[in-house]
Every structure is written in structure tokens, then in C-alpha cells.
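Field log, afternoon session.

UNIT: design team B
ACTIVITY: writing a sequence onto a fixed backbone
BACKBONE:
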């Protein structure tokens, strides 16, 4: 079932506050401000598909900014791919600035500052893709963020058509949430979209196999984050590979198996600490839910990642 928020359920003077609260809960940390003095109106539908999060957003204009401060507060390391359905949206990142209009596709990433400034009411289809799923293509994609692409020809047309039909299917229930194979298909299309020559580039078979394996491992880890015993040996055994080859896969991404598990757990804890519905849940209960077994260890690694203790973080950002 999709997660839905509609500001029409709130009194007019509370609608933007509701929208800001929901945004802090479902997206990465950023600041958001209204651009119109009139009562704000927005609706967000959210689905999960494999490791992807998908959003249909209809909203009055607001200004979104993600600064280095917000990146330090939390970085899920994702690339957003957006198909603009109605209205325009100005996207700025890494010195690039583009205006995405109806029928155009634009991307931005969470690990660098960005700004989203729609000047008018709009509707967008947005997909969040974990950077790890994009493999060796991620640098090429991130070098072209804030660069709108017309979805009227070539691979871009396929991506646009795929997105529209995918969201229609999720909306009417003919496509079920959680479909990892459908998610993989979309990721492959995005990789092809940003290939240097605009078409599917041939890769050595070993590279393709490693990319598929990384995606399977990422999904496996996400499903078992709450298990304190999750570790490299279990992951290697479940995927019929050696521990040394597993270490090489993670080293190619600039991390280790244990660091990746820890960072994923911290990100889940960060999200729960921001969730108003969990405001009464003790901090350590949240930590235990995601596989931490020591309160002192959790507090130490959380402070190292976010610059403050879990309690300080909840007090600073949850409201």
C-alpha cells in the first residue's frame, strides 16, 4: 500500500508545516520554504520497489536547498531521477543549473549541495536510486545532474514511457510493490540513459556480473539489518562467493563490508529518530531494532557520523 500525505487534511495555516514535517521524514535532510503567501497545497504518494523509492508529487511551489550542513546531518547516498509531468522546476547542482519542463527528465544526487526551485505548481514522478546500484556508471551520471533531457526520443523516451506506465501500475494495483526485477530493469534503463553516446554501452561480462552481485548483496543486507549477527561470512556464504572476493567488491566502492552495514544501520536509525510517530520510542530501542547491541557503541558511532549524540539529533531535527 502506498504511503500518502495530502495537505488538504490540515487547516490552511498548518498545511506547509505538515509538508515540511513529511519532507524531513521521507527524504534526506534539507531546508524547505514556501514561495507563495497563499495557503499551501501538496500531495505525495510513495511506493517501494526493490531497493528503490518512488514518489508522485503534486505541489505548489516551494524552495528546497540541501547545504553541506544538511549533508553532514545525513546522506543516504542516492541519485534522484525525475520526470516532470506538469509545470517547471529549476534544478541546480555543482555549478550547473537547468529548468526541467513537462516531458523532461533531470537528475540530482544527495551527496552534493543542490537546490530545487519550482516557480509554479507542478507534478513530478521521482525515483530514488541508491548509488551502489549504479556501479561504475555513477560518476558519469553525477557529472550530468541538473541537466534536463528531452524524453521524446531514444533511450530517454523509453525511460519516460517506462516511468509513466510504472507509476500508473503502482497506482491502480496492477504492479505490486517490492518487485526487485522491475526495479532492476529501471536501473538498467537509467544507466543506458546516461551512457556517453546515449545508447547502451557494451561492458565486459565480468563487470556486468559484479554489478548484479552488488545489487543482490545490497538487497540481502537491507533485509537483515536488524540481525546483530549479520556479517561478511554470512553474506559471502549466502551468495556462494569467497570472503576475499566479497571484500574486493566492497573495496571497489571505497568501503568495507562492516562499514557498509554500519552506515546502513545508522541511516535507518536516523530516519526513525526523525519520525514523529516514533517520538516516544526510547533511543536504544530504535538502535536495537536495526541491529545495534550496545548503547555506548551506538552513541559513539552515531556521533562520529552525524556530529552529535542520537538524543541531541532527535531534539535538534525531529521537530
Amino acid at each position: 500500500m502506498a504511503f500518502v500525505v495530502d495537505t488538504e487534511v490540515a487547516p490552511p495555516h498548518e498545511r506547509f508545516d505538515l509538508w515540511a514535517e513529511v519532507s524531513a521524514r521521507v527524504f534526506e535532510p534539507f531546508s524547505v520554504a514556501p514561495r507563495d503567501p497563499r495557503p499551501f497545497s501538496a500531495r505525495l504518494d510513495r511506493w517501494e520497489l526493490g531497493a528503490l523509492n518512488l514518489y508522485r508529487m503534486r505541489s505548489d511551489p516551494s524552495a528546497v536547498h540541501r547545504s553541506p550542513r544538511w549533508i553532514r546531518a545525513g546522506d543516504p547516498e542516492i541519485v534522484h531521477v525525475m520526470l516532470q509531468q506538469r509545470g517547471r522546476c529549476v534544478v541546480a547542482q555543482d555549478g550547473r543549473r537547468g529548468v526541467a519542463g513537462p516531458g523532461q527528465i533531470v537528475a540530482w544526487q544527495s551527496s552534493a549541495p543542490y537546490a530545487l526551485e519550482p516557480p509554479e505548481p507542478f507534478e513530478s514522478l521521482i525515483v530514488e536510486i541508491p548509488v551502489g546500484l549504479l556501479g561504475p556508471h555513477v560518476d558519469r551520471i553525477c557529472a550530468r545532474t541538473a541537466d534536463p533531457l528531452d524524453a521524446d526520443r531514444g533511450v530517454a523516451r523509453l525511460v519516460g514511457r517506462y516511468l509513466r506506465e510504472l507509476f500508473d501500475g503502482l497506482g491502480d494495483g496492477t504492479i505490486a510493490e517490492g518487485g526487485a526485477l522491475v526495479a532492476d530493469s529501471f536501473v538498467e534503463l537509467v544507466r543506458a540513459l546516461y551512457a556517453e553516446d546515449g545508447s547502451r554501452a557494451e561492458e565486459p561480462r565480468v563487470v556486468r556480473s559484479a554489478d548484479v552481485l552488488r545489487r543482490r548483496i545490497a538487497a540481502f543486507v537491507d533485509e537483515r539489518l536488524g540481525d546483530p549477527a549479520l556479517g561478511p561470512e554470512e553474506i559471502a556464504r549466502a551468495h556462494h562467493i569467497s570472503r576475499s572476493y566479497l571484500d574486493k567488491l566492497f573495496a571497489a566502492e571505497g568501503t568495507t563490508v562492516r562499514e557498509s552495514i554500519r552506515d546502513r544501520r545508522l541511516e535507518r536509525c536516523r530516519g526513525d529518530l526523525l519520525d514523529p510517530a516514533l517520538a516516544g520510542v526510547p533511543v536504544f530501542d530504535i538502535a536495537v531494532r536495526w541491529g545495534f547491541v550496545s548503547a555506548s557503541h551506538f552513541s559513539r558511532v552515531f556521533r562520529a557520523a552525524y556530529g552529535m549524540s542520537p538524543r541531541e539529533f532527535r531534539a535538534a531535527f525531529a521537530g
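LOG NOTE: The chain has two domains: 3-193, 203-319.
NEXT ACTIVITY: expression trials, pending approval
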